[in-house]
Each structure stands twice: as C-alpha cells, then as structure tokens.
Amino acid sequence: MSTPRAPLLRPALALALAALAAVPAIAADSIATTSAWLPAAHVVGASGVFRTDVEIFNPDPVRSAEVTLYFTPAGVDGTNLPGLRIAPDLGPRASISLDDVVVATLGRSEGFGVLEVRSGEATPVIVTSNTYNVGGALPGTYGQFSPGQPFRKAVAFDDSVFGDLYVIGLRNAPELRTNLALINPTAFPLEAGVQLVGAGGGDPYVSRAYAVPPFSIRQVNDLFEKEFVASGAPRGGPYRLNVFVNLANGARVLCYASVIDLRTGDPYLIPGEPTIHP
Fold first, then answer.
1. Which of 31, 66, 123, 172 has its CA 20 to 30 A from that of 223?
2. For residue 87, how many other CB atoms are within 10 A of its CB?
3. pTM
C-alpha cells in the first residue's frame, strides 16, 4: 500500500523531545528506533549482481508495529516520494525478511539509494541489512552488513565536537578502496562538511563540502586514491573522518564508510558515530 511521506519532526528541539516522549524508553546504545536509515541496492557490478536483504524485528511483547518503507535513489529529492506500507502489521516479537528489497519488495528493476524504515510512534523496531554479491565467478556470496541507523544519531549544525560524526580506523593503502556515504534524513537540503584527519589529530589534510537533497544519500567514491589524492595524506593510518552540517537550516546528517579490499572484493562498513553530550 502506497503511503505519502510526512515530515518526521526534524528541525526543532521541542518537537524532537515530544517525539521521544511518545515512545518507550530506548537504550542509548540500541539501534531500536521508529526511523531507521540504511543503504539499499540492486546493481550490476564487475563481479556480479549486488543486492540488499533487509531484516526487521518488532521487540514489543504486546503491540504490533506499523512498518512503512521509503526508498530514495541517490541524488534524488525524496520529499514527495511515496512509501510502501508492509501488510499485515508486524506482530509482537515478530520478524520479517525482505530479500532483494529493491526489486522484490519495492518493485524496481535496479537502483541504489537510501531506505528509511519507519514504524509507529509507540513501536520502535530493530532493522539490519546485508548487501552482497550473487552470481560472481565463484559460488557463494560475500557481503556488507549494515545496521539501520536511528534518526536520533543524526547530528545537526553545531560548532562544538558534539556536532561531528566520526568515522575511524581508515587506512590509506593501494589495496583498499574507501567510499563515504552521506545521508540526509531531513526535509531540508544538506550541506555536509567532511574533514580527513590523521592519527595525531591536528589540522585536517583536507576539508570538503557536499550537497545532499532531502531524504537522500550521496556517495563519495575512492577517498584516498581519487577524491582526496591531492591532500598529501601519506600511506598508512589510522585516519578518521569528521562529518558535520555546514549550514544551520534544520538539516542533519548520518554517514558511513564502505571499505573494499580490492584483492578479494570483500567490503566492510564503518558507521559514523556521534559523541555523547554530557
């Protein structure tokens, strides 16, 4: 069932507090949420077809969860894109698997973008996914796990350290390809700032800004070999990325890095993490 996308309280602190009051208490380190954000794909790559399977679990022992999916292709403004209501509702303590979600559930022939999994205000859900290769030269699969990032982890404009997301443990090595994905989970245009910082801290090697449409995702490919190659960052590491919001217009940002071992094609995902405010 198609469901229009209503703005999700994004900009104002008072509205955010009201939203928190409407849901059961959630542990700060849990990914249970009423608004989870994660990449989703069905694309043909050099070694086969990459697709995304999504798992959704309703941990509530009493209430059913009204689950709606909103998919926005990369670089597209998702404000007016309709959602897809999962029917029937997800019962108490029940799970659902959405294999090859872009094609089998959303009805698209292909695509890469960001998926919001939204549940009713009283029923946070736990969402995870795996994006993996099928049909390559060798039998079997290899893939990249991704947690559904809660909207509450998205940072807004803030000049302090509490306005940064940190992607840590990156290596500048020729056998690794590092891609960065910037997610805008709000109804406002996002200008995301990105800084590459060395192990010793200090001044960043490079600072860049990237535009991301509302409710969308932007992928910045091959940071060390292409995007930041002129920065002079030496081989090795570890490096970190500071990701933040440049303009105080109500936009927020989530992010992750996808690191691919070019020798095997095996990827892993590093979510951007905020600092907990005292």
1. 31
2. 9
3. 0.90
